[in-house]
Amino acid sequence: KIDSTLYKSSKQEPLATINLSNRSIAPTSTLPLLYDLGTKKLENGKYFSHIRIEHEDVVWEWDEEFEISNASEINDAALIVKNPISKMYYVIIAIIGCILLLFLLLFFLLFKQKRRNDEEV
């Protein structure tokens, strides 16, 4: 199990967390931890990550400090989804629009038919 929490060095509130289970990592290897910040953007400055790895009955735990000086480049390259709108919403809106148009057409035709009947009498 791998747990990691990202903090801005001056704040106690976490920016993001990662919880990975059923993972393994080889000794002396690296594991990139990709944090999902949602719509938040990184700022230049100092950060630290609290990392905890559990394997069977052994636990490794440490803090890793680092500094970001190119936050604008990172933010430009990051995928930031502001308001994800599913295609299903568009399909639902199109169906409702078609139903409304059919009702309007039916109303128009019935109204026209009634006027013809009234004129014939």
Uncertain ranges: none
How many helices does DSSP assign? Answer: 2
H-E string: EEEEHH
Oligomerization status of the protein chains: single chain
Mean pLDDT: 86
**Strand residues, percent:** 25-35%
Main sheet summary: 4 strands, antiparallel
Distance between the termini: 84 Å
Task: Give the arrangement of secondary structure elements.
Blueprint: E1 2-8, E2 14-20, E3 45-55, E4 58-68, H1 71-77, H2 87-120
Antiparallel strand pairs: 1-2, 1-3, 3-4
Describe this structure in words.
With about 120 residues, the protein is of the alpha+beta class. Helices cover about 35% and strands about 30% of the residues. It has helices at about 70-75, 85-120, and strands spanning about 1-10, 15-20, 45-55, 60-70. A hairpin with a 5-residue loop joins strand 1 and strand 2. About 0% of the residues are buried. The model has no long low-confidence stretch (mean pLDDT about 85).
Quick synopsis:
The protein contains two helices and four strands; from the N terminus they run ββββαα. With 121 residues, it is α+β, with helices and mostly antiparallel strands. It is elongated.
What attributes does this structure have?
121 residues, alpha+beta
